[in-house]
């Protein structure tokens, strides 16, 4: 078995502005090497408000899926808030691999980073 069913990403932040042609965004990058489609739930945790836990995505069998957080909407049409720090819990019904990436274009000298999520046993 490759992967875990629960992953944590403690540092999330969607920039409120972008410069140039590229949009500031984050992505939860999923790799599913199982023989089954992964059904994924994303829960967002904040410093000063209740969690948002009605975000869902899927990743096909033996596929990748880059879940763009600036384009994600929950079951009620709510978006991930910008300009607010958050953490993310990623739950899947099959083992997956999770990586987090951020493209910050809020300044002319843009920044890109990526890091692996923390797998939960």
Present the secondary structure layout:
Elements: E1 4-12, E2 25-32, E3 38-46, E4 52-59, E5 63-68, E6 86-104, E7 111-116, E8 118-120
Antiparallel strand pairs: 1-6, 1-8, 2-5, 2-6, 3-4, 3-6, 6-7
Cα radius of gyration in angstroms? 14 Å
Shape: globular
- Would you list the SSEs in sequence order as H and E? EEEEEEEE
Query: Into which percentage range does the β-strand content fall?
Result: over 45%
Write down the overall mean pLDDT: 93
In short:
It contains no helices and 8 strands.
Explained architecture:
The protein is mostly beta strands and 121 residues long. It is built from no helices and eight strands. It has strands spanning 4-12, 25-32, 38-46, 52-59, 63-68, 86-104, 111-116, 118-120. Strands 1, 2, 3, 4, 5, 6, 7 and 8 form an eight-stranded antiparallel β-sheet that branches. Strand 6 and strand 7 (111-116) form a beta hairpin.
Descriptors:
121 residues, mainly beta, 8-stranded antiparallel β-sheet
């Amino acid at each position: 078995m490759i992967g875990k069913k629960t992953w944590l990403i403690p540092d999330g932040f969607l920039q409120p502005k972008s410069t140039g042609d590229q949009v500031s965004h984050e992505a939860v990058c999923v790799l599913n090497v199982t023989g089954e489609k992964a059904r994924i739930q994303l829960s967002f945790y904040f410093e000063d408000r209740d969690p948002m836990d009605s975000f869902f995505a899927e990743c096909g069998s033996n596929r990748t899926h880059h879940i763009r957080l600036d384009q994600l909407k929950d079951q009620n049409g709510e978006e991930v808030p910008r300009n607010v720090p958050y953490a993310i819990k990623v739950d899947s019904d099959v083992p997956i691999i999770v990586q987090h990436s951020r493209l910050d274009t809020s300044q002319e000298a843009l920044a890109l980073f990526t890091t692996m999520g923390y797998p939960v046993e």
